[in-house]
Write a structure and sequence with these properties.
Elements lengths: L29 H4 L4 E3 L16 H14 L4 H7 L4 E5 L5 H9 L7 E6 L5 E6 L5 E8 L13
Parallel strand pairs: 1-5
Antiparallel strand pairs: 2-3, 3-4, 4-5
Length: about 150
């Protein structure tokens, strides 16, 4: 119970779907906001168009620098104070390639994915586990091709 006598809000958990199952869409909630970001690489894709197979050492160093910086913050700080750089993007605004990859991964029921800006053009895409704040890295998007979305007021 919360101090006002209300039950705490229950938030869906992002889990890896089994073959034939759909991913549960997770709305940002209090579940992970107080956690510092952690990174999981198990879901990384190694296929076109958003795979990791052609990443350079320099690009990986850029990613490492941004992820190390984000580890010093909580997700609340990342989303609220750096939301112009790192934020959720609605999947209905994804490019055709992005929507096709979601379908192929059985994730096409997700309403949004989290995107982390690495440079002006390069993006990292993934899912945040609501239990512990782990960012499940999915795609490397060096050409900014996943989403056609422009965040409002930016």
């Amino acid at each position: 119970m919360t101090p006002r006598g209300k039950k705490p809000k229950q938030v869906a958990v992002a889990e890896t779907p089994r073959r034939g199952e759909k991913q549960v869409a997770v709305a940002p909630g209090d579940g992970y906001y107080d956690h510092r970001p952690r990174w999981r690489f198990a879901r990384m894709e190694f296929c076109k168009p958003f795979g990791w197979q052609h990443i350079t050492a320099g690009e990986f160093a850029e990613i490492q620098r941004v992820l190390a910086d984000l580890e010093t913050l909580t997700w609340k700080d990342v989303i609220e104070k750096r939301g112009d750089l790192h934020h959720y993007c609605p999947t209905n605004k994804f490019s055709q390639e992005g929507r096709q990859r979601l379908r192929a991964l059985n994730l096409d029921d997700l309403e949004r994915l989290m995107r982390l800006r690495i440079t002006k053009k390069k993006r990292l895409w993934g899912l945040i586990d609501d239990n512990d704040g782990t960012f499940n890295i999915l795609w490397w998007d060096p050409e900014h091709r996943v989403s056609l979305y422009n965040k409002p007021h930016t």
